[in-house]
Write a structure and sequence with these properties.
By secondary structure, the protein is an alpha+beta fold. The protein has five helices and nine strands; from the N terminus they run E-E-E-E-E-H-H-H-E-E-E-H-E-H. The strands form two sheets. The chain has a seven-stranded mixed sheet, covered by helices on one side. Strands 3-4 form a two-stranded antiparallel sheet. The chain is globular and about 35 Å long.
């Protein structure tokens, strides 16, 4: 873990689902962009240039193909239909409080995530990395890019939705 970031696990009602309590991770300070070290080794993606881009109308099929199993679909987004139809993402994006993004490397999409905006806070949700690229730090880069975007939009209360047993996301 980076010594410059402070992360707290909290159980709070989700603003999109007020009747349900979810464990969420709250960051109080961003990790420095140059802190690409994990367990003392240089992260494999340190040399990759990533960009956060708006999600396009042609992108849903790519993202739903990244979800590899019915269990992963439920953990990712509570989707019980597998494979998830691309129309599901289009339905999510019809909500004006949901702002979808792709993380791209060299123009190719490598990860997906959403900002769920509320008046006073924003939640990072439905994050997924392309299966062949998992374990290379792209999820961390996606979170950093989404946090930067949320701050740019004026939010200082930023939450990350995490399934309680998703140890990879929590660390």
């Amino acid at each position: 873990k980076c010594a410059n970031s402070r992360v707290f696990l909290v159980n709070q009602p989700c603003f999109n689902h007020p009747d349900t309590t979810f464990p969420r991770v709250r960051t109080t300070r961003r990790r420095p962009a140059d802190a690409e070290r994990r367990e003392g080794e240089l992260c494999e993606t340190a040399a990759m240039e990533t960009r956060l881009v708006a999600f396009g109308a042609a992108d849903p099929g790519v993202v739903v193909d990244w979800v590899r199993s019915p269990e992963e679909a439920v953990r990712w987004a509570g989707v019980v239909e597998f494979p998830a139809p691309a129309a599901t993402l289009r339905e999510w994006h019809a909500d004006p409080d949901v702002v979808p993004f792709l993380l791209v490397v060299g123009g190719d999409p490598v990860a997906y995530g959403e900002l769920w905006e509320d008046e006073s806070e924003v939640e990072l949700a439905r994050l997924v990395v392309a299966p062949k690229l998992r374990g290379r730090g792209l999820g961390r880069r996606l979170v950093e890019a989404l946090v930067t975007e949320a701050e740019r939009r004026g939010f200082d209360e930023i939450w990350l939705r995490v399934v309680p047993d998703n140890e990879i996301a929590i660390r």
